[in-house]
Amino acid sequence: MHEHGDATTDAALATWVPAGDPDFPIQNLPYGAIVRDGETAPHLAVAIGDYALDLGVLARAGIFDALGSDARALLGGSSLDVLIARERAMWRSVRSAISAYLRADTSTRNGELAARALVLRRDARNVLPFTVGAYVDFYSSLEHATNLGRILRPGDEPLLPNWRWLPIGYHGRASTISCDSSVRRPHGQIARASGVPEFAATRKLDYELELACITGNGIAGPITAERARESVFGVALLCDWSARDMQAWEYRPLGPFLSKSFATTLGPWIVSIDALEPFRRASRAQDPPPLPHLAVEPRGAFDIVASISLRSGAMSSRGEESDRVAEVNAGGLYWTIGQQLAHVASNGTTLRAGDVYASGTISELDPQNSGSLIERTCDGTVPLRLSDGTTRTYLEDGDEVTLAAHARDPHAVAIGFGSLCARVI
Length: 425
Ligand code: CA
Hints:
The protein is an alpha+beta fold. The protein is 20% helix and 27% strand. The chain contains 13 helices and 28 strands. Bound molecules: calcium ion. Calcium ion binds at residues 137, 208, 210, 240, 360-361. The site of calcium ion has 6 residues, from loops.
């Protein structure tokens, strides 16, 4: 067993499911909700290799009855809401039961039930697997905040005085979070030189590469960062779509509003916090030391490399691969998940089941490795060249954005978050 994981992350574990997508070994088992071809109702599932394991089929067959009298309600419904609201011990029991079902040495292999429960992921689509409670978007990358400060306030100190004292964030719009495969270009107010704004389609549609944690069982604040992280159910990719021209006009003095609220895309698979344990790292040094209520977690960072790929509509129609446009390590984020949550709860607020807390854009100082186009193209002044010969300042209609992320450690089996893929329409 790995020193920082439990039996479900043991590198020696193998599954009877045929080898496939390396994002999804038996050590991962991320949760999602799938709609199988020809059906309309979502089923809960975990990703394994090239397949999704339909937990609804297994729960109704009684496979998980040993978990308790409510086992069928936990996994047989159309969302994770019942499971997320439970305590961490139950999350671990469920994960162990699924892991046990998939282990190579179990008797389930090749059974008729297993054949019904395994569905090729290309024969299903993912939908949002839980009811979103609150949605908060943080701003926890020192490099992103520095890059953006330089672009938005040239000549000034790029970081505002509060940045190193608290995890800056704002409440976003929970109702427009989805797992949709497209994003519609929004209309809004855009400043003009005349002083009278126009109402028009954004000309500066951007992505923001983020990771989001989803909280479970409610905890009332105030709480420590160590305690806060016990409420984390899992982590998923998140794309915070941003209309920069609308944002520039509306954001003073209260921050982003309609330039962000039109759509936020969540990745299809939620990697449980227990699957991420082997990839915990020492937290980044913080200067100045945070106030006591935000005391740093010693091992609050995760070694997760995330990437963005882009392809034009023309490249898609010719079947060409996407261009990798950035790769960043989330282990470098300044504020940890535990500190973010401790901050949210520090005024007495409760962390609720199904809340989504996004990291903020993950960037490195080199614009080549930044999680947004506003950084990558320096607000459109340094165009990005795609392999089809066209250039981008911001996203064009037909462009397809793909986010991916992987956690690695020399002593653990690497795991991935799948692909968050959405096209601009
Ligand atoms: Ca953001």
